[in-house]
Amino acid sequence: QRCLTFIKTAKCLNAYITVTEEKALKQAKEADKRYRRGQPLGHLDGVPIAVKDNFSTAGIETTCASKMLKGYIPPYNATMVQKLLDQGAVLMGKTNLDEFAMGSGSTDSIFGPVKNPWSYSRHYRKKLVPSRQLETEDSNWLVTGGSSGGSAAAVSSGTCYAALGSDTGGSTRNPAAHCGVVGLKPTYGLLSRHGLIPLVNSMDVPGILTRSVDDAAIVLGTLAGHDSKDATTVQDQFQSFELPEEIDVSKLCIGIPREYHASGLSRETVALWSRAADLFETAGAKVIEVSLPHTGYSIVCYHVLCNSEVASNMARFDGLEYGHRCEIDYSTEALYAASRREGFNDVVRGRILSGNYFLLKENYEKYFTKAQKVRRLIANDFLQVFSSDVDILLTPTTLSDAAPYVEFIKEDNRTRSAQEDIFTQSVNMAGLPAVTVPAALSDRGLPLGLQFIGRAFCEQQLLMAAKWFE
Ligand code: GLN
């Protein structure tokens, strides 16, 4: 009930596309009865959660924030959604995102941009110097980062305890950092993608957004494991990921990647990063500088691979089999073209075009195959580091704190993704787990996150380091 009230008071954030109020109340009542009988369904019985609107939800509209899927009501639940419901979680609604999860601001949605709850925090308001105040007070509002900005804002504003996001190049970690919450991107293959509408199949993973590392570990425990409907999930059985109260980091070796001293990194982020390294060192951990030499290629490599997979994935939305259908009926080709022109925004259309270009017979070797080779080199950099002493890598999550909307939209989507995802994308290309935790407030009074990257399937160790730091 309280979360529903928060959803109403925080409506101006535009975090939710659909609020499932009636269903939520019914679910909550049932959970309450079970609780009183002492028979909870599972760890999450009665816990309010939200789900990004690119996860299929049976009987609930699933739009990917695109006109293409507006009105689409899936007949089944994504495995992640089903697992949450099986544990008794209460679904509050579906959260806003960049269209088809392409973006890093949650500003490119047909439902309008998501506002960062921190735009209204006293710290930030107090620090707005008069010259920065734009015409109306409200035009100073900040973006959430993206593409899972709705989920991050939903958790950050107290409308739910946990939310599902997706992470292909940073979409869970980036908004989590900007909204001051924890954002976990699990190892590729640990969580099922069944029912998550694909962006880049070889990099997509469901992400978890919560207010604490402990919460993230609990949710991860309920979601992890093999799914016969997703052949890329691993067969191993996973125990719970719950974390001990006392954590000893003195045996850890923390690597600081030299190449992550990127241009555009804010002074305060650098300071925070080195303070964090010092903290680990003081606690007895070994902190060493490491090298990931192919980092510089990751943005361009991601761009080629992402757009190529996008071109192929989006082909299904033709207005006949799937998606928005326009009025034109004089030829099938014209119908395809017009439906896709009307249904997709220009970011999606741009990626489809460039992806198809990379996949042309005469370009395939030059771009796609080459990018796959570079991806291997990027993944090998991590393997090499983790096969030495290093257990965890410590990096910034974003270059700086959240940008005001008016400044953010000055750059186009592609340039922004190229800048914003610099610390996150290579992790997806390597398939590794990573988590961002809120680490400090910037000079403007806004949250800054730090990212921990771990060995594949070593989430427990990764989360322990993150919890110790939290
Ligand atoms: N910003 C990246 C992109 O636009 C990442 C998106 C994501 O992780 N879903 O592709």
TrEMBL record:
Name listed for the protein in its UniProt record: Glutamyl-tRNA(Gln) amidotransferase subunit A, mitochondrial
One GO cellular component, as annotated: glutamyl-tRNA(Gln) amidotransferase complex
Main location: mitochondrion
Domain Amidase: start-end pairs: 8-122, 142-463
Function according to Swiss-Prot or TrEMBL: Allows the formation of correctly charged Gln-tRNA(Gln) through the transamidation of misacylated Glu-tRNA(Gln) in the mitochondria. The reaction takes place in the presence of glutamine and ATP through an activated gamma-phospho-Glu-tRNA(Gln).
Gene: QRSL1
Subunit structure, interactors included: Subunit of the heterotrimeric GatCAB amidotransferase (AdT) complex, composed of A (QRSL1), B (GATB) and C (GATC) subunits.
Enzyme class: ligase
GO annotation (BP), single: glutaminyl-tRNAGln biosynthesis via transamidation
Pfam families assigned: Amidase
Known EC number: 6.3.5.7
Source species, domain of life: Eukaryota
